[in-house]
Structure formats: structure tokens, C-alpha cells
Amino acid sequence: MIFGRTERGKPPVEPVTLKILVAGGFGVGKTTLVGAVSEIRPLRTEEVLTEAGRPVDDVSGVEGKHTTTVAMDFGRITLREDLVLYLFGTPGQERFWFMWDELSEGALGAVVLADTRRLEDCFAAIDYFERRDIPFLVGVNCFEGAARYPAEDVRRALDLDDGVPLLLCDARDRESVKEILVGVVQHAMKYTADRRRRALTT
Amino acid sequence: MSADGQAGSHWFDDDAGPVVRPYAMTRGRTSHAAQHRLDLIAVVVTEPHVDDPEADDTLSPEHVDIVELCRDTPQSVAELAAELDLPVGVVRVLIGDLVDEEYVHVSRPVPPAELPDESILRDVINGLRAL
Fold first, then answer.
1. pTM score, two decimals?
2. For a disulfide at A92, which of A26, A142, A197, B123, Cβ 3.0-4.6 Å?
3. A61: number of Cβ within 10 Å
4. How many domains are contained in chain A?
5. Domain-by-domain residue ranges, chain B?
6. Which residue in B104, B114, B124 has the most chain A C-beta atoms within 10 A of its own C-beta, making it the best mutation to test that interface?
7. A131 in a domain, yes or no?
């Protein structure tokens, strides 16, 4: 005889889930951005140590250690009971890039956060998304005390394609981050529509 | 890891690493046949017929946690890993076991290779603006 839970009413809602990646150099404000619009939680993955990480990951004294823990931030935004958007802050260190492949699969799009004082830190991320045909926009995080540059100058310095949106933002400000995310979704829609059109005409 | 280089320095508490190594919970397995379906945002849903997972001796406490967590609110793989404070790889193996035993199923409405419907994307935009 089974009691209780089987008697429950309607089954729980299975939400549609989507994800947007937040990339950029170390200390550019990825965690701040995710935290501005969602409750942030750390996610742990245990990864096999690679040759590439050897000079960096000091394993002296623990030579038996073959895995390393990669931590990243993620946030959940419940848009509707049946619609959930996840934000994933990609691990900044380049040696963890193998993780990006998994993260970017099925991603709606990406935000590359840039700091005008260290623009070169986000070149790698831009390059990554360009090569994999993942729609992205660049958010220039306007830090206090950092010189402001016209968007056009930053765009030129980053050598961005015309189609890639560039927005100035404040990663601490909820409204500003919302605009960034809306921008990513809009860009992703346009990007796919363009790609479909190109596929039809060729 | 301490970088001070003091020979023979002692590790206390968390510095010594987890008492049980993560993959001990999976009995050493690092992958599972069902894993290709387990994206970080794949949603795990407890089957409605599941009543008392604790009664099943073959399940570990972590298995039971997953079944209970996903009963009322289906959760993504990422959320489960964060909630249980386990590496994603471990959680994937555990979920794979539960799928095999038909305790849970994994729902992934949007195929990873394609973008969701335009109407869903519009809903996302409206939802974000309304936050």
C-alpha cells in the first residue's frame, strides 16, 4: 500500500532553461554582474590537471594530486514559473578554457565584459566566441576612476565586427545589467535570423 | 594550497581536503552512459511514482537528496551541484544512476544545437525588463 506522495495533484512544472555566458578577464566584474540580477552560487567541478596548468598549479607536496577544482559562479533568474535563465561566469584563467566548450554548447549568447584599462584581457574571449559562431556583445564596465572613452574608440581598439553590439555598463547596477542581457537576447535573435537568411540565399 | 613552502606544515580542517574524496560517492566512476544528455542546465525531475527512496538500500544518501530535492521543484544539474556542494562530475554520475533506476527523468526541451523559438526569446526579453 502506498500512501502520500503518489496522491499529489498536478506534477511540478518542468521549466524551459536557457543560459547566457559571462566572460572576460580576471577582476573585470563578472561575479558582480551575475550578482546584480540574480542570487549567485558557486559551482564546483573537479577537473583533471593538464600539462598546461603545471607551472601554475603548485602540486609540490601533493604529487598524487591529479585533479583540480575549478570554481565558477552561476546565477538563476526565474522569468516565469516555466522559464528560467541561467548566467554562468566562465572561469577566467586561460588554462580552464576546455570548460568553455561545455559551457558554450547550447548557450543563447554571451557577454564579454571589458575594462578599458586592460582591454587586452578580453581579446581571447572575443576570439573564442567569434570562432564558434556564438552571438555575443561587449559590455564595457565603466569603473569609477577609469577614463571614459567613446564607444567607437573602444570598438576600434577591440577590432570588433560591425555586427557586434558594444554597450557601456555598470556591472553593479541592476538596470544596467538587465539592459546588457536584453541586448544579448536581441542580438542572438537577429544573429540567427541573419544566419537563416544567408543559408537560404546561398 | 599554502605557498609558504614550510616543510612539513600541517593541514587542518578544510585545508586537508574533503574527508571523503568526491568520486568515492560514485564508487570511482567518472562518467555515465546517460551523461551525454546532462547539460548543466538540463532539468532533473523526480518521477511522480517514486515514494520512499530511502527504503532502497542501493541508493547513497546523495542519491536520496537528489530525488527529494527534485520532487517539488525540478532543478538543473548546476543547481543540484551547488546545493549538494559536490563537483558537477559527481552529480552527473549520480543522476545517471537515478535515471537508470527510473527514479528521475531529465528534461531538456531545447536541443542544444539550436536556438529556442523566437516567441520564447521575446518572453525572455519581456521577463528581463520586468525584473
1. 0.82
2. A26
3. 14
4. 1
5. 17-129
6. B124
7. yes
